[in-house]
Amino acid sequence: MPITIEREPAGIRLKGAGRQFALSETLDCGQAFRWRQREDGCWEGVAGGRYLCLESQGEDIFLQAVPEADLPFWRQYFDLERDYEELAVLFRKNPCLRRALASCPGIRVLRQEPWEALCTFILSANNNIPRIKGIVERLCQGWGEAVPGTCLPAFPKPEALAPLGEEDLAPLRAGWRSAYLLDAARQVAGGRLDLEETASLPTQEAEARLLEVKGVGKKVAQCVLLFGFGRVECIPMDVWMKRVMAELYPRGFPGYLRPYGGIAQQVLFHYYRQGRS
């Protein structure tokens, strides 16, 4: 069943969510780059201009001090309407996914803002997760607006980046990716790329539109489709996943997995990246 959401005076409780929502595996597995774990074990981050602190409490997940108006955003962001326990039953029909789920259960695919997903996955090209996080943090600190009630900035708007030159982005230490980031910002700020409209297009048309941005190849476009537009059938193919697919699924996923290929790949990606056992 989908996760049960209960409102409490101090926040929102996701009842029994721990069985299908592992915080570290979901928030630190290379699909989003603005979450960090505090010394007290809680995870905090900013998404969609909103700050959130959340923690595991037994079998529940507790979201601290969430305004009622923000609940629909987090419901979509964490894909809370999808029954991941039901998906796990489907995935366990496949021997490889069964092993992966036994090793790292509880991974969810986040539904991020398309603009942030586009930028962060442009920055992810030929990069590693710690370095991507550093670049993204410097980008937000430099041009993101303050988020009320916290010292953390929001992700910068395209209008804040569009007027800049590559020399302005030198402190990011993003290298050649800076030019691609600026092209994305100028296309979105100037209206040439309407991400809301693109999100409504059929998958192939949306992908073709994303490929018109400099530096966006097949893999980055698929990441935006999956993590920004919620197209869970899309399978981003980086070095890890090419290796996994060649070894385990040389003919592609079985038909029953393909509608959820993006979720399956995230489980396999994390399993292989952590060192399968």
3D structure, described in words:
- It is a single chain.
- With 277 residues, this protein is of the alpha+beta class.
- The chain is 43% helix and 11% strand.
- The chain has 13 helices and six strands.
- The chain has helices at 23-27, 71-77, 84-91, 95-103, 114-123, 129-143, 158-161, 177-189, 195-199, 203-210, 218-228, 239-248, 261-273, and strands spanning 4-8, 11-15, 35-37, 43-47, 50-57, 60-64.
- α4 (95-103) crosses α13 (261-273) and α10 (203-210) crosses α11.
- 39% of the residues are buried.
Quick description:
The protein contains 13 helices and six strands. By secondary structure, the protein is α+β, with helices and mostly antiparallel strands.
Topology:
Elements: E1 4-8, E2 11-15, H1 23-27, E3 35-37, E4 43-47, E5 50-57, E6 60-64, H2 71-77, H3 84-91, H4 95-103, H5 114-123, H6 129-143, H7 158-161, H8 177-189, H9 195-199, H10 203-210, H11 218-228, H12 239-248, H13 261-273
Antiparallel strand pairs: 1-2, 2-6, 3-4, 4-5, 5-6
Helix pairs in contact: 4-13, 5-8, 5-11, 10-11
Count the strands? 6
Individual helix count: 13
Order of strands across the widest beta sheet?
A: 1-2-6-5-4-3
Radius of gyration: 18 Å
**SSE ordering:** EEHEEEEHHHHHHHHHHHH
Largest sheet: 6 strands, antiparallel
What is the 3D shape? globular
Low-confidence stretches: none
Strand content: 5-15%
The assigned structural class equals alpha+beta
Mean pLDDT: 94
Portion of residues in helices?
40-55%
Q: How many angstroms does the end-to-end distance come to?
A: 29 Å
Oligomer: single chain
